[in-house]
Amino acid sequence: MTSEANLHLSWIPLLALTGATVNGFFGKRFSRSLVAAVALAFCGAAFVWALVVVSRFSFLPEPVYSEPFAQWIQISGFHVEFAFFLDHLSLIMLLVVTGVGFLIHIYSVGYMWDDPSFYRFFTYLNLFMFFMLTLVLANNYLQMFIGWEGVGLASYLLIGFWFTKDSAASAGKKAFIVNRIGDFGFLIALFLIIQHFGSLNFTQVFDAAGRLPMETAGAGTMTAVGLLLMVGAAGKSAQIPLYVWLPDAMEGPTPVSALIHAATMVTAGVYMVSRSHVIFERAPMALTVVAIIGTVTALFAATIGITQTDIKKVLAYSTVSQLGYMFIACGVGAFSAGIFHLMTHAFFKGLLFLGAGSVIHAVGGEQDMRKMGGLRSKIPWTFWTVTVGTIAIAGIPPFAGFFSKDEILWKAYQSNWVYWFVGLVTAFITSFYMFRMWFLTFFGEYKGDADRHDSHGNDHGHGHGHGGVHESPMVMLVPLMILAILSIIGGWVGIGGRFEHFLAPVFQTGVEAAHEVEPHSSMEEILMLVSVAVAVCGLALAWLLYVKKPQLPKQIAEGMGSLYRAVFNKYYVDEFYARLLVKPLLLGSTNILWKGVDQGVIDAALDGSATGANEVSDSIRHMQSGNLRSYAGWIAAGAAAVIVYMIWVGTR
Amino acid sequence: MVPLHYYLVLSGILFACGVTGFLIKRNIITIFMSIELMLNGVNLSFVAFAAHWHALSGQVFVFFVMVVAAAEAAVGLAIIIAVYRTRETLNVDKVNLLKL
Amino acid sequence: MLHLTLFLVFGAVCLAGAINLLVQRHPINSALSLVAVMAALAGEYLLLGAEFVGAVQVIVYAGAIMVLFVFVIMLLNAGEEERTRGSHIALLIGVPGMLTGSLLIAWVLLHHSGTEAVGIGALPGPPKALAQLLFHDFLLPFEVTSILILIAILGSVVLAAKPEPSQEKEN
Q: Is CATH 1.10.287.610 correct for B4-94?
């Protein structure tokens, strides 16, 4: 379905790639301002062009646009091409990625200014934009997979940005490896799709899948594909059981956490599942699995978030939990609600991360919330923007989070009240720990030591002992303000089902919607009130525990004893994985692969052949003994051998 | 009438004795003499076959073998003399400096 | 009958001389037994009708080469052989090898023992025919061997010569 107009979609990712290349090859010689200018220019150009494309797209007759770029694989019967594809779903993703990405680029200029590897950061950041845009604008699964892998790579590079630090390098590796496990599932799903449909192109696959009947038995190709795609999404979007990399990924610089692990990369899983909705709708069992994974993850991560003391870890677990919400939405068939939440989450989570970065910058690198407090008066701009983000994530109207979260809860209720109930409890917990973070950071007495000059924090470039707690520069504050505005108004596009209507051309193909878009029913309004009440209760509880009676948390923790410790240690999941998987794997590869195969077989073969040659020649050397009689003996023996041979040949 | 193979057996035995002497003896001159014995055995074989096939070229070959044996004996003995001058011994086992 | 007897007599002398060569410890004894072997072989040649070869055998081989050997033995005053430990290889591999070879040859010969007999004096032709052959068909080898002899003479003179007097004076 190509239209005559050429929107030059390909320019968007290519601009980002150019920025990465220029900075990558020449950035070392550039001055800091030039590097920043190059990075911002290309990213900004991509954003501007995205806006142009969107406006032009709205004038196209059809809500789908495809732009071929190059041929790739051409085996008989199987074609894969590089092409760019735009429909309403990828339009939203495109705007989110380029918009929020651009804002974070601006923020990073200020945040990373003192870092010696300034140009490397922006190279990786632009590279990440390129891959993410390839993922979002792809028109076939294989190109999406390229983007998928590429953002994994960029994530590894950026998490381990300060690679001289052991924990950062390990976190990068962990992220990449755990992602790879998910990618394995994704690949097998691709193979199944190729085998079943003979193509990886979205339109072709979904057209063919649309003609298939529903698989109600809970087994069949579509179910398999759906489950495997979900494995890939679980890896990329940090769901159970592959979420363990996301908290560790906080080792990277805060803009990285904001961009990759809040707004864009982790949402790739949700995007992929939504894009494949035709397949999922034919496999109700897979959808149920998706919903269950989302539900469990949301609750699980939220409970861990209650006890964390590192401000970035709180936000990391919050991200995992919110992603769980998006998967609940997808799992009950409300894909547009999931995408809605994706969008608002990008706004307020990006805001929260950038705000946290601003706080960390202000206190000279300290990330432990117990050493913060009372920052409200010292960094007012940061305080107000983070407040907006916190209210948004808690789901209090009229901020953005309320609309999207409520949409999800409503759709979940219509499917199965258990999903709704767990989502409600999670909303309560979310509100609680977010306001806990808010209170601990900004209220009370300042318990840190940035006022003294010997502060050294986790974040590398921030032990710059400016002297005292100080507000961030404007270049960091402006993106915060823009995101705060978006967190307020971003939800209003969903009022009255407009968002769902916008995405209807995408999601209405295939199985007809499980339920029509209803106007507000009274049940929905009651549920809305319940969720708001729950959010406010969370706020109240946090206020009680951290402002009114600050000695209570400690008593509760001691009272809970081992339960508290379990939650504080993230339910020992990392240790469990280490014991179950990592240790045997390391043992196996050390003993079998390294000592057994590499040293024992390969090295031994080479060394053995060398030693063998040595020994053979050593033994033969004794033949030349200078002794005439032994020479004579050998000659006689040789002559006998020749005679034997000649007789044997002669008598044949 | 003597069958041919009698001559050949005799020739073979002479040759075998020559080889054995070459292997067993320690005096270099004796070893040389064993070589001459070998050559003689071979000569006998040549002449026997020449007689068997009524071909004269067998004898001519014997002629050449003798010439070569003479030359070789002369040179070999000269070498033995030269070695004796330096090593003062005719025992082959003592002349083993050319070893690895 | 006579042929066979004469053959056996000469053959016995050959064998006795060969075995004596092996057994004797003093090289001079070995040399003399070799002379006996050569003489017996000359007799064999005569039996076969190769008079020229027989004569040359006695003149050149027994008369010149063996004399040379005896000269050298006496010159070098070779004594009885010492019993030194030599090489194991010679005894371990060489002798079995030699035995194998000879036994195999013997086996082959016995298998093909149905050959026709060689008459006494069976070889044709006087020495004149031999000379024809030598100087017509085998002229090249003949000339080459003469050069070979020349080289051998030169070589042995050089090798066996005493060291230069000037070098001796320096020493």
A: no
Instruction: State the pairing for strand pair A64-75/A78-87.
Output: antiparallel
Mean pLDDT of chain A: 84
CA dihedral sign, ordered A559, A563, A565, A568 = negative
Nearest chain A alpha carbon to B93: A627
Rounded to the nearest angstrom, the minimum Cα separation between A607 and chain B is 25
Is residue A112 classed as helix, strand or coil in its secondary structure? coil
Q: How far apart are CA A26 and CA A20, in angstroms?
A: 10
Nearest alpha carbon to residue A42 among A9, A69, A10, A12: A12
Q: What is the pLDDT of residues A291-321, one digit of tens each?
A: 999 999 999 999 988 888 889 999 999 999 9
List the domain boundaries for chain C: 1-80
Closest by CA to A19, choosing from A119, A110, A91, A109, is A119
| pLDDT tens digits along A563-581 | 777 888 778 888 888 888 8
**Spatial contact of A261 and A203, defined as CB atoms under 8 Å apart:** no
Digit-coded pLDDT (tens) for A324-366: 999 999 999 888 888 899 999 999 999 999 999 999 888 888 8
- The rounded distance, in Å, linking the Cα atoms of A27 and A412 is 49
The answer to whether B18 contacts chain C (CB < 8 Å) is: yes
Q: Which residues lie across from B27 on neighbouring strands? A: B91
C124 contacts in chain B (CB < 8 Å)? 54, 56
How far is the C-alpha of A543 from the C-alpha of A438, rounded, in Å?
10
CB contact under 8 A, A627 and B93: yes
Which chains have at least 3 CB atom pairs separated by less than 8 Å from chain B? A, C
Q: What is the pLDDT of residue A61?
A: 78
Label residues A320-359 b or e (16+ Cβ within 10 Å = b).
bbbbbbbbbbbbbbbbbbbbbbbbbbbbbbbbbbbbbbbb
| Nearest residue on chain A to B26, alpha-carbon basis | A629
Which residue of A622, A624, A632 is in closest CB contact with B22? A632
Query: In Å, what is the CA distance from C35 to each residue of B39, C20, C73?
Result: 14, 11, 14
d(CA A113, CA A462): 10
Report helix, strand or coil for A253. Answer: coil
Distance CA A485, CA A100 (A): 13
The minimal CB distance from B10 to the residues C11, C30, C101 is found for C11
pTM for the whole thing? 0.71
Contact A604, C61 (CB under 8 A): no
CATH class of C1-80: mainly alpha
Here the tokens at position A567 are 């939650």
| Phi (first) and psi of residue A81, to 5 degrees | -130, 160
The burial of A200, by beta-carbon neighbours within 10 Å (0-12 exposed, 13-18 middle, 19 or more buried), is given as buried
* C93: nearest CB among A625, A637, A647: A637
Please give the single-letter amino acid code of residue A51: L
**Predicted local distance difference test score (pLDDT) of residue A215:** 67
Provide the shortest C-alpha distance from residue A619 to chain C (in Å). 14
- Interface probe for B, chosen from A622, A625, A627 (most Cβ of B below 10 Å), is A627
**A520 pLDDT more than 80:** no
When pLDDT is cut at 50, 70 and 90, the band that residue C89 belongs to is: low
Mean pLDDT, residues A366-389: 86
In SS3 terms, B70-100 reads as HHHHHHHHHHHHHHHHHHCCCEHHHCCCCCC
Of C101, C110, C130, the CB nearest to B56: C130
CB-based contact B98 A626, cutoff 8 Å: yes
Q: Is C21 exposed, middle or buried (0-12, 13-18, 19+ CB in 10 A)?
A: buried
Q: Among C89, C100, C101, whose Cβ lies nearest the Cβ of A630?
A: C89
Return the residue in C26, C28, C65 with the most chain B beta carbons within 10 A, the one to mutate for interface testing: C65
